[in-house]
Each structure stands twice: as structure tokens, then as C-alpha cells.
């Protein structure tokens, strides 16, 4: 039985995938993703399992840290972003912010911001 808690609203789904809500609407119109409708208000809802399938198709064989880095860089470049955004993205990639900090991808001083570190140069 499907529960309402198995679904994300369009803004949540967009953040989960690292795209804009308009991108999700376009994908729905192009039949690339299925949007379900809320039984009361008719808003678009997306099943998390279906979103996970979209992520797998888009990201292929990359490791979770790499997938995090790609999405973070697309959204923020090397600029600081909100720690909450980093935490949400890390959760979506089944990793932790501490893990990407340990991997040298992200710098976080424990405050409200986090920033992607430039890649290290090989000597």
C-alpha cells in the first residue's frame, strides 16, 4: 500500500535530484518522470523510489562522493552554500557531510555554510 509519506513535493524532489522544479515539470511533460497528484490539493508528488531510479540513470557508476561533488559544483561552484543544502544533498547520495569533508571535497567549519574545495593539483 502506498503512503503519502513515500512521496516528495516538487520542491523537495527538485532539491533531492539537484535540479529546479521547472526541470521536473519539463521531465513530466516529456514523459521522463511520473508525477502523481495529491489526492486533496492536486499538487505534483514524486515517489522517492522513482527519483532514486532517475539518479541511478543519470549518475551511472560514479561513487556517492563524486555524485555529491558534481551536483554541489553545478549548484555552487567553489562558492559557499548553506550547510543544510549540503546535508540534504549528502543524504540523497546516501553519504554524510562528514564523509565528503573527510574526502577533501567540502569544507565546513560547523557553521551555517559549507564550501566546495578546489581540486588538488597533482605534482
Give me the Rg, rounded: 16 Å
CATH architecture of the largest domain: Orthogonal Bundle
The total count of strands amounts to 6
The separation of the N and C termini measures 56 Å
What is the chain-wise order of helices and strands?
EHHEEHHEHHEE
Strand order of the largest sheet: 1-3-2
Fill in the CATH topology of the largest domain.
Multidrug-efflux Transporter Regulator, Chain: A, Domain 2
Biggest sheet layout: 3 strands, antiparallel
Helical content stands at 40-55%
Mean pLDDT level:
81
- Overall tally of domains: 2
Alpha-beta content class = alpha+beta
What does the overall shape look like? elongated
Low-confidence stretches: none
Approximate strand percentage: 15-25%
List the helices and strands and how they pair.
Layout: E1 7-9, H1 10-17, H2 21-29, E2 36-37, E3 44-47, H3 48-59, H4 64-76, E4 80-82, H5 83-92, H6 97-102, E5 106-108, E6 113-116
Antiparallel strand pairs: 1-3, 2-3, 4-6, 5-6
